[in-house]
Amino acid sequence: MEHTFYLKVLSANRVFFTGKCKAVIIPEYDGQKEILANHEDMVIAVCEGEMRFLPENSEEWQYAVIGTGFVQIANNRVSLLVETAEHPEEIDIARAREAKERAEEQLRQKQSLQEYYQSSASLARAMTRLKLAGKTYNI
Protein backbone atom coordinates (compact mmCIF):
# COMPACT_ATOMS: atom_id res chain seq x y z
CA MET A 1 0.00 0.00 0.00
CA GLU A 2 1.31 3.41 -0.93
CA HIS A 3 1.50 6.19 1.60
CA THR A 4 -1.02 8.95 0.98
CA PHE A 5 -2.32 12.07 2.66
CA TYR A 6 -5.47 14.15 2.37
CA LEU A 7 -5.12 17.27 0.19
CA LYS A 8 -7.63 20.13 0.07
CA VAL A 9 -6.98 23.07 -2.28
CA LEU A 10 -9.22 26.09 -1.73
CA SER A 11 -9.15 29.22 -3.87
CA ALA A 12 -11.07 32.43 -3.20
CA ASN A 13 -13.99 31.37 -5.39
CA ARG A 14 -14.12 27.55 -5.22
CA VAL A 15 -12.92 24.26 -3.84
CA PHE A 16 -10.30 23.37 -6.44
CA PHE A 17 -9.41 19.83 -5.28
CA THR A 18 -10.11 17.46 -2.42
CA GLY A 19 -8.86 13.92 -2.12
CA LYS A 20 -6.00 11.64 -1.25
CA CYS A 21 -2.62 12.23 -2.86
CA LYS A 22 0.80 10.63 -2.95
CA ALA A 23 2.66 13.94 -3.38
CA VAL A 24 2.20 17.65 -4.02
CA ILE A 25 4.81 20.19 -5.14
CA ILE A 26 4.10 23.84 -4.40
CA PRO A 27 5.97 27.07 -5.29
CA GLU A 28 7.58 28.87 -2.35
CA TYR A 29 9.34 32.20 -2.27
CA ASP A 30 12.72 30.48 -2.14
CA GLY A 31 12.03 27.55 -4.49
CA GLN A 32 9.65 24.62 -4.35
CA LYS A 33 8.54 22.25 -1.60
CA GLU A 34 7.43 18.68 -2.09
CA ILE A 35 5.03 17.34 0.48
CA LEU A 36 4.69 13.59 0.99
CA ALA A 37 2.69 11.46 3.43
CA ASN A 38 3.44 11.98 7.13
CA HIS A 39 5.25 15.28 6.47
CA GLU A 40 6.23 17.31 9.51
CA ASP A 41 3.51 19.75 10.66
CA MET A 42 4.15 23.32 9.45
CA VAL A 43 2.73 26.38 7.73
CA ILE A 44 4.40 27.65 4.54
CA ALA A 45 3.88 30.83 2.53
CA VAL A 46 3.09 30.03 -1.11
CA CYS A 47 3.88 32.30 -4.05
CA GLU A 48 2.29 32.44 -7.49
CA GLY A 49 3.38 29.66 -9.77
CA GLU A 50 2.91 26.13 -10.94
CA MET A 51 1.63 23.49 -8.54
CA ARG A 52 1.53 19.79 -9.32
CA PHE A 53 0.05 16.89 -7.42
CA LEU A 54 -0.17 13.13 -7.80
CA PRO A 55 -3.63 11.78 -6.89
CA GLU A 56 -3.87 8.46 -5.04
CA ASN A 57 -5.03 6.24 -7.92
CA SER A 58 -3.04 7.89 -10.71
CA GLU A 59 0.42 7.68 -12.18
CA GLU A 60 0.10 11.05 -13.94
CA TRP A 61 0.82 14.39 -12.28
CA GLN A 62 -1.95 16.98 -12.42
CA TYR A 63 -0.92 20.61 -12.91
CA ALA A 64 -2.40 23.92 -11.82
CA VAL A 65 -1.51 27.60 -11.74
CA ILE A 66 -2.00 29.03 -8.27
CA GLY A 67 -1.86 32.49 -6.74
CA THR A 68 -0.34 33.56 -3.46
CA GLY A 69 -1.49 32.04 -0.20
CA PHE A 70 -0.29 29.50 2.32
CA VAL A 71 -0.29 25.79 3.01
CA GLN A 72 -0.90 24.17 6.38
CA ILE A 73 0.38 20.65 7.04
CA ALA A 74 -1.04 18.93 10.13
CA ASN A 75 -1.80 15.31 11.01
CA ASN A 76 -1.21 13.98 7.47
CA ARG A 77 -3.65 16.57 6.09
CA VAL A 78 -2.57 19.35 3.74
CA SER A 79 -4.72 22.46 3.31
CA LEU A 80 -3.67 24.84 0.56
CA LEU A 81 -5.43 28.23 0.65
CA VAL A 82 -4.69 30.45 -2.35
CA GLU A 83 -6.14 33.47 -4.12
CA THR A 84 -6.58 31.64 -7.43
CA ALA A 85 -6.26 28.11 -8.78
CA GLU A 86 -6.70 27.10 -12.43
CA HIS A 87 -6.39 23.89 -14.40
CA PRO A 88 -4.38 24.30 -17.64
CA GLU A 89 -7.49 23.81 -19.79
CA GLU A 90 -9.20 26.72 -17.99
CA ILE A 91 -6.53 29.23 -19.02
CA ASP A 92 -7.59 31.77 -21.64
CA ILE A 93 -4.38 32.02 -23.66
CA ALA A 94 -5.32 35.24 -25.47
CA ARG A 95 -6.19 36.92 -22.15
CA ALA A 96 -2.92 35.72 -20.60
CA ARG A 97 -0.93 37.12 -23.54
CA GLU A 98 -2.72 40.47 -23.20
CA ALA A 99 -1.97 40.54 -19.46
CA LYS A 100 1.69 39.79 -20.16
CA GLU A 101 1.93 42.63 -22.70
CA ARG A 102 0.14 45.03 -20.33
CA ALA A 103 2.48 44.16 -17.45
CA GLU A 104 5.57 44.52 -19.65
CA GLU A 105 4.39 47.96 -20.80
CA GLN A 106 3.74 49.04 -17.20
CA LEU A 107 7.23 47.91 -16.21
CA ARG A 108 8.74 50.10 -18.97
CA GLN A 109 7.08 53.18 -17.45
CA LYS A 110 8.25 55.09 -14.42
CA GLN A 111 6.33 53.78 -11.41
CA SER A 112 6.26 53.92 -7.66
CA LEU A 113 7.80 50.97 -5.84
CA GLN A 114 4.35 49.57 -5.04
CA GLU A 115 3.25 49.84 -8.68
CA TYR A 116 6.49 48.15 -9.75
CA TYR A 117 5.82 45.19 -7.44
CA GLN A 118 2.22 44.91 -8.69
CA SER A 119 3.37 44.99 -12.32
CA SER A 120 6.06 42.39 -11.59
CA ALA A 121 3.49 40.12 -9.93
CA SER A 122 1.13 40.53 -12.89
CA LEU A 123 3.91 39.63 -15.30
CA ALA A 124 4.89 36.56 -13.25
CA ARG A 125 1.27 35.38 -13.13
CA ALA A 126 0.81 35.82 -16.90
CA MET A 127 4.11 34.04 -17.67
CA THR A 128 3.18 31.08 -15.44
CA ARG A 129 -0.25 30.79 -17.05
CA LEU A 130 1.27 30.85 -20.54
CA LYS A 131 3.95 28.34 -19.57
CA LEU A 132 1.45 25.85 -18.20
CA ALA A 133 -0.98 26.38 -21.10
CA GLY A 134 1.95 25.80 -23.46
CA LYS A 135 2.72 22.44 -21.85
CA THR A 136 -0.88 21.39 -22.31
CA TYR A 137 -1.58 22.79 -25.76
CA ASN A 138 1.97 22.95 -27.22
CA ILE A 139 1.77 26.65 -28.06
Written description of the protein model:
With 139 residues, the chain is an alpha+beta fold. Helices cover 29% and strands 41% of the residues. The protein contains 2 helices and 9 strands. The chain has helices at residues 93-108, 113-137; strands at residues 5-10, 15-28, 31-36, 42-46, 49-55, 62-66, 69-74, 77-82, 85-86. Strands 1, 2, 3, 4, 5, 6, 7, 8 and 9 form a 9-stranded mixed sheet that branches. Helix 1 packs antiparallel against helix 2 (113-137). The chain starts with a strand and ends with a helix. The relative contact order is 0.17.
Spatial extent as radius of gyration:
16 Å
Distance between the termini: 39 Å
- Please count the helical segments: 2
Q: How large a portion of the residues is in β-strands, by DSSP E?
A: 35-45%
Averaged pLDDT, please?
A: 88
How is the biggest beta sheet arranged?
Answer: 9 strands, mixed
Secondary-structure class? alpha+beta
Helical percentage: 25-40%
Low-pLDDT regions? none
Brief synopsis:
The protein has helices at residues 93-108, 113-137; strands at 5-10, 15-28, 31-36, 42-46, 49-55, 62-66, 69-74, 77-82, 85-86. It is of the alpha+beta class. The longest helix is centred in the last third of the chain and has 25 residues, at 113-137.
